[in-house]
Amino acid sequence: MLAPEQAAQEEDNMQKIDQVYQKRLERHFDELKWLYMELYGNDAMFQELCRNMELFFTDREMDLKEQDLKREAHGDWYKKNDMLGMMFYIDNFAGNMEGVMKKLDYILACNVNYLHLMPFLETPKGRSDGGYAVADFRKVQENLGTMEDLEKLTAACHKRGISVCMDFVMNHTSEEHVWAKRARQGEEEYRNRYFFYGNREIPDQYERTVPQVFPTTAPGNFTWLADAGQYVMTTFYPYQWDLNYRNPRVFNEMMYNFLYLANRGVDIIRIDAVPYIWKELGTPCRNLRQVHTIVRMMRIIGEIVCPGILLLGEVVMEPEKVVPYFGTVEKPECHMLYNVTTMATTWHTVATRDIRLLKRQLDIVDGLPKEYTFLNYLRCHDDIGWGLDYPMLMEEGIGEVSHKKYLNDFFRGYTGSSNSRGELYNEDFVTGDARFCGTTASMCGIERAGFEQNEDMMRSAIQLDLMLHAYMFMQSGIPVLYSGDEIGQVNDYTYKEDPDKSADSRYIHRGALNWELIKTIRDPETVAGRLFSGLDQLEHIRRREKAFMSTADTWTVETWDRSVLCIGRQYEGDKILGLFNFSEFDKTAWINEKDGMYTDLISGQSMEAAGVNIPAYGFYYLKRKQEEV
Predict the structure, then answer these.
(1) Is the Cα torsion angle 503, 506, 509, 510 positive or negative in sign?
(2) For residue 253, with 0-12 CB atoms within 10 Å meaning exposed, 13-18 middle and 19 or more buried, which class applies?
(3) CA separation, residue 64 to residues 263, 266, 309, 497 (Å)
């Protein structure tokens, strides 16, 4: 029981926080109402939304409210140079949420303070799309734990300075969701939450302008429900029914789910497939104006109720369609976006040993406002789609179809002196298009080198792996590791033995974490030990050097060698040059920075930043010596 003085102090704090809520509401109310009424024109539903927002604020735990206040006061809290993410499936990593809590010391040993828990909400077995077919937004999969376990996990992470990210699947629900079940039974209210049609007339009109996401494994954008005698829109898979955001009830209810999950202690909400959430006849149903209205309202609602949380947008599209999801500096939308195109271009660079396309891509990102924060990664749970800048490649006589085939052949180890291993996903035998699946280690050659017991090949593969991570750390934004990459985990082919997974080659890089390998991370003779220690050194350099702040000035430097990339970073007078050789041959970077001597942060060697010789797949972090400025 609290002493009278403590109780009075706590009551006073609560009153002050309540007053803060009213100030937040007043600050955003006019814009939120204007946007809502523009989209829906329904004052009663808007008033309901406001009432429920206040209820969710009231229910928010005091420690989360206090965290909100701190993060409000330091709006750039997530842009520091110590931010490092890791993503994993809970069952693959540690069995369940309780298991993850027991592994937090390992996560800290990886220097990670941003944890992305892959989809863990209730999904039907065998028809889950890796967890993205949600049957209940307020229930954890039973094998992973409960909502109470989630709250315990987020609280334990917060005590250790770790933020937690989760996926929020806004575009669709599982056909097993209660709304879908009631819609299937013919209840008009619930059919209006989806897109139901009694014949092909309107679905056919949509099909004329809407591209197919999975033309081979899930062709078309509609599914016939024989038991209901209706077609339903299913952009992704037949068991994932698209939500109708033209219905304000859908928006309100999904915002209540969003706030419910934020109140469980989640810090980062990853909005899945955000470009798809508004549908309009006669359009591609991608990136429509109304999508941005919805995301802006979601941002405002978060800033009123739980401003300590961040919105992370999943926009897997070309740069000019990605950037608008940041909104504007005055009216922001997502706090962070994935740097998808740069990731794909990075692997293109590995396969071609030509950095020109990558350099252009980095220049585009570097030219954006510093308020825009990208998440950078080499691999994730998904496949790699080769969405490159083909107009530029065409200038070199490189065609889109032929180049995609080359990349897929290269990373399967078929051509281009490649040591990579992996598999194709969603191969279209008509167009020849396909996506690629594989872990970072396997794509770098570690799998083949281990299978052939070839130490020279292994040394080269590990060097390539470390160089790519060193390069990723130099990019503008926040780096995210894919669990297993820190120990060089290779492709897992056992998915083919599971009937629920065998048809989806993405499970080749979704294998369970090998904790036996982790036991060897302190042994410098093992692959896991060599990679773990190398990454640890890079991560400590990044955390120590302020030039790695995500708001630092970044640029590329001409090296006069198509295989060598140079990235510059500068913050408050500190300047670092990163040099990266994407070739298996020794190269020279013909830079000539005439501003003093530099120190290589990897080896400690003092050198000039001019005519730098770089070994095969080698890299340098060159820091300008302050005394020479």
Answers:
(1) negative
(2) middle
(3) 8, 10, 10, 44
- The backbone region for 353, taken as left when phi is positive above 0, alpha when psi lies in -120 to 50, beta otherwise, is left
| Rounded CA separation 571/546 (Å) | 6
Q: Residue 103 gets which letter from DSSP? A: T
Residue 629: pLDDT over 50: no
Cβ–Cβ < 8 Å for 260, 250: no
| Locus of tokens 């709250």 | 151
Q: How many helices (H) and strands (E) does the chain have?
A: 22, 23
Can 553 be counted among the known catalytic residues?
A: no
Beta bridge partners of 109: none
> pTM, whole model, 2 decimals?
0.93
Q: What is the pLDDT of residue 321?
A: 78
Question: In DSSP terms, which residues pair with 424 in a beta bridge?
Answer: 436
CA–CA distance, 610 with 101 (Å, rounded to integer) = 48
Q: Which residues contact 106 (CB under 8 A, 6 or more apart)?
A: 518
Measured CA to CA, the distance from residue 11 to residue 15 in angstroms comes to 6
Please say if 314 is a catalytic residue: yes
Classify residue 503 by burial, with Cβ atoms within 10 Å: 0-12, 13-18, 19+.
exposed
Our CA dihedral for 291, 297, 298, 303, rounded to 10 degrees, sits at 150
Q: Is 599 helix (H, G, I), strand (E, B) or coil?
A: strand
In percent, the amount of the chain with pLDDT more than 70 equals: 97
**Residue pLDDT, tens place only, 258-271:** 999 999 999 999 99
Rounded distance between C-alpha atoms, residue 51 and residue 72, angstroms: 23
CA distance linking residue 589 with residue 561, whole number of Å: 6
Q: Is the pLDDT of residue 620 over 50?
A: yes
- Supply the DSSP symbol for 550: T
What are the backbone dihedrals phi and psi of residue 575, each rounded to the nearest 5 degrees, phi first? -125, 130
Considering all CA atoms of the chain, what is the largest pairwise distance in Å, rounded to the nearest integer?
79
Task: Pick the catalytic residue from 242, 314, 539, 561.
Answer: 314
CB burial readout 200-211, b (16+ within 10 A) else e:
eebbeebeeebe
Q: Which of 149, 175, 272, 492 is catalytic?
A: 272
Q: How far apart are CA 128 and CA 89, in angstroms?
A: 14
- Point out the least confidently predicted range of 55-69, 252-266, 312-326, 334-348: 312-326
In angstroms, how far is CA 532 from the centroid of its own chain?
22
